[in-house]
# Entry
Amino acid sequence: MDADGNLSKSFKKSKQGKLKLVKNDDGTYRTVTSMEADFDIVKDELVEVFRMGVITKEWTFEEIRERAKIRDYEMAKNC
# Structure
């Protein structure tokens, strides 16, 4: 809906196929679809945590704290 309450066509469009979140060399991220040639080569940054209601990956509190330290260091380095 627009500001006046009139229906309008959505500009959103879903990506087709399987997706991977890929980290670029400059530290930014992009989405790669299974339609792209490098799909099978690139590393997916996402980790499956749930599948059909079952937890597939768990982390300890210490593992999470270690990851947080790395991100804090990287963020401070980029400031």
